[in-house]
Design goal:
This protein is an alpha+beta fold. It has one domain. Strands 1-2-3-4-5-6 form a 6-stranded antiparallel sheet, covered by helices on one side. Strand 5 and strand 6 form a beta hairpin. It starts with a strand and ends with a helix.
């Protein structure tokens, strides 16, 4: 069965930063994931990916934060997007 694109959004936060949200419904599941979604959620600042959530085949659900690759828990797609946006907002908050 072909992948079905269910979300593709590019949201500019300001002149130099954006969110890119791409989600597909796939069958069978991506190797390493226990759900039917293939996704890539990215926070990009000045053409550099600062944060990315994805589920690359064989790696399962994880995020990239700088050079680190960290496993994440997938509950459902809405929670995943909420968690991603929350983390972006934390990164954007002045220190």
């Amino acid at each position: 069965m072909p992948a079905i694109l269910i979300m593709k959004r590019r949201i500019w936060l300001d002149r130099s930063s954006l969110l890119s949200l791409v989600v597909w419904d796939v069958t069978p599941s991506v190797r390493g994931s226990n759900h039917r979604y293939k996704y890539r959620l990215a926070y990009v600042v000045q053409d550099v990916c600062v944060l990315r959530y994805d589920n690359e085949a064989g790696k399962g659900d994880h995020k990239h934060l700088g050079a680190a690759e960290v496993p994440i828990e997938f509950i459902d797609i809405n929670q995943l997007v909420d968690d991603f946006v929350t983390e972006v907002n934390q990164l954007r908050r002045p220190q």
